[in-house]
Task: inverse folding
């Protein structure tokens, strides 16, 4: 009877009021229906909340569509499937679910005892736009939530489900010019869901920070310059997200790649029923073995897959947008790991430095970092790609288990505190933290999360070498 009363009361509360029942089964009222989560160690969580309709059948290769409202209370105690892909054994963050095409779901964590509106941190995973999901244990938002934020993660389509074009899709134009970049459309839909529903979980929709790593960091650049994402977030945290520039692929190029895929499945891409036949393929047939390992070992023949491209509406030319001040103009933290892909002068490390310079030239507040710390149990020098995630999320104990040392824990506490301060105030600095100076070209500062286990602010020791290897162009759009 008590549970029935709680459900009934939650269903009648206005959406602007945090509809959270504190206890073993917290209930929140979203704009499409009520969801029941769980509580563990002082943190309430809700998992597997749909933010868009299942993108299956006729909705394969469509922009995300609205969720059908439900009656009663939906169970939200377990992750929904990650998006369709072929996982690979060496993934630094193995998936916690079996992938499926029905995958557009969000997860929320909130400290039970918190009062008032909390800042919202929204996580965008990496994986080369062919792998990744919200379910890996190191991506849990529980530990950041304990520090006073609402943490949101979500799935977005990857591989050929996330990026695909064909002349028939272009001619149909079912979504008003939104074509090809379905994974980025999912990200925008998730941020729109946050705007509509953050208050229901105690979050402040006027204080949203997006944070992404690798493909997720590249996504942050795309969102920072996309007109369709304007106003959906207020701070951006870019981890190993490259140099903030687009390649030269066009819609016509991606249509040709889609046609190559159709032919690989013995479907004539010019046939009237080509799109119908492609949508009739199983999810496994569309995936066709694609994952991160396959990207580095491409099969012979014409390409059959691609990542996000400039379509001019969802994804714009990022370099040109940054050069022309067509960006969100929100505070930014940007950086990479010390042994990131490509080395010192490569796309990640040099790219982060270049982005810091471009944005500070536009009078955007920027803080630059480099992650040089290596967990004690790893036993080899150099911080590899993605190794900063469990430290920024304070999930080092999840990642390293009983091999976690006190120094590992301390570094995670310090780095996650910077994330929370940035989410709360737009500046990573706060009481008890080493001072992290904002970036300027003249002083060239960065915060090095150093191999010795300390946060050290200093001029970039690799700055001259990076600049000599890749001279800064006169315009970011060149």
Result:
């Amino acid at each position: 009877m008590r549970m029935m009363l709680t459900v009934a009361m939650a269903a009648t509360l206005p959406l602007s009021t945090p509809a959270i029942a504190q206890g073993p089964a917290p209930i929140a009222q979203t704009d499409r229906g009520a969801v029941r989560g769980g509580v563990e160690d002082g943190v309430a969580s809700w998992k597997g909340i749909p933010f868009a309709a299942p993108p299956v059948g006729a909705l394969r290769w469509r922009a995300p569509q609205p969720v059908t409202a439900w009656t009663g209370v939906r169970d939200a105690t377990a992750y929904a499937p990650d998006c369709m892909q072929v996982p690979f054994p060496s993934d630094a963050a193995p998936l916690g679910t079996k992938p499926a095409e029905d995958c557009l779901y969000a997860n929320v964590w909130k400290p039970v005892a918190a009062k008032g509106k909390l800042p919202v941190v929204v996580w965008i995973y990496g994986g080369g736009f062919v792998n990744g999901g919200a379910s890996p244990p190191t991506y849990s938002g529980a530990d950041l939530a304990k520090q006073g934020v609402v943490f949101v993660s979500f799935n977005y389509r990857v591989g050929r489900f996330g990026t695909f074009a064909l002349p028939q899709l272009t001619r149909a134009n079912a979504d008003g010019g939104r074509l090809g970049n379905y994974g980025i459309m999912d990200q925008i839909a998730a941020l729109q869901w946050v705007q509509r529903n953050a208050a229901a979980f105690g979050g402040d929709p006027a204080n949203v920070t997006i944070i992404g790593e690798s493909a997720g960091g590249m996504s942050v650049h795309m969102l920072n310059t996309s007109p369709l994402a304007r106003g959906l977030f207020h701070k951006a945290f870019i981890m190993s997200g490259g140099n903030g520039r687009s390649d030269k692929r066009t819609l016509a190029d991606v249509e040709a790649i889609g046609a190559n895929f159709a032919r690989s499945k013995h479907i004539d891409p010019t046939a009237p029923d080509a799109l119908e036949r492609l949508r009739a393929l199983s999810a496994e047939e569309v995936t066709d073995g694609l994952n991160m390992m396959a990207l580095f070992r491409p099969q012979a023949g014409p390409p059959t897959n691609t990542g996000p491209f400039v379509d001019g509406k969802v994804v714009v030319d990022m370099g040109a947008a940054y050069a022309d001040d067509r960006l969100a103009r929100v505070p930014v933290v940007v950086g990479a790991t010390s042994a990131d892909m490509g080395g010192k002068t490569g796309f990640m490390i040099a790219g982060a430095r270049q982005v810091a310079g471009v944005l500070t030239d536009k009078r955007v507040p920027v803080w630059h970092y480099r992650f040089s710390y290596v967990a004690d149990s790893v036993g080899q020098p150099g911080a590899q790609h993605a190794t900063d995630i469990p430290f920024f999320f304070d999930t080092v104990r999840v990642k390293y288990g009983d091999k976690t040392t006190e120094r590992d824990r301390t570094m995670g506490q310090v780095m996650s505190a910077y994330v929370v301060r940035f989410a709360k105030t737009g500046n990573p600095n706060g009481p008890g933290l080493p001072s992290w100076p904002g970036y300027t070209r003249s002083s060239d500062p960065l915060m090095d999360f150093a191999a010795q286990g300390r946060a050290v602010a200093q001029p970039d020791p690799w700055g001259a070498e990076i600049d000599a290897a890749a001279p800064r162009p006169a315009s970011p759009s060149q």
Q: What stands out?
A: Confidence is low (pLDDT under 50) at residues 1-22, 474-478. The longest strand covers residues 203-213. The chain has 16 helices and 14 strands.
